[in-house]
Sequence to fold (208 residues):
Amino acid sequence: MKLYTYDSAPNPARLKMFLDYKGIEIETQQIDMTKMEQHSEEFLAVCPNATVPTLVLDDGTRLTEVIAIVHFLESVYPEKPLLGVTPNERGMILNWNHRLFMSVAMATADAFRNAHPAFKDRALPGIHPVTQIPELAERGKTRLLQSFEEINAELGTRDFMGGANFSFADIDLLVLLNFAGWAAKTTPDASLDNIRRWKQQAEQALNS
Ligand SMILES: N[C@@H](CCC(=O)N[C@@H](CS)C(=O)NCC(=O)O)C(=O)O
Fold:
């Protein structure tokens, strides 16, 4: 199996935290997005959609979505589970993985890619030209602030995003808060106490 990735980009960063936490080592090739290597002929032969990360399995199967890659790897390496053990945990972790992707990840990407000149005609990842829409950049920042309020309320009901235990949903949120901070210049208000408390606990759990 071989992993094609670019560790400093947000989706690859979610996967890297998962791999490091579980102590999984995989043959890896970095695809330098600052040099547009994701659009090189060599990488397009691996991933025609030009996105990282991509995991190529030993039989040639390609997984191009982080959530699919971590599910595959958790089945092969079940130690230190990050996707839940009970049916309830599994449901909640997937629920919040998807919700955070659709809210925080998409809103940040909208804010970043519809405003930055480097993404002219590349407002969405992939091989097709996509025009920037400046209004989406503004909407992205508003959606982020709304999402932070919702997440803060959720975290008032439990220790971690997926329940009582640290999970991949917490990795999602750690990476996405960082992404929103540098790419959309939007961070949770200091009054959102539950997010602040959760972040300390999640960072501790990640390094345990
Ligand atoms: N749905 C994919 C998203 C992958 C994705 O969008 N990756 C970004 C890096 S964070 C990318 O490859 N962008 C390529 C580009 O901007 O040209 C997943 O869950 O992994």
Notes: The chain has two domains: 2-76, 87-206. The longest strand covers residues 2-5. The chain has seven helices and four strands. Residues 2-76 form a domain with the Glutaredoxin fold (CATH 3.40.30.10).
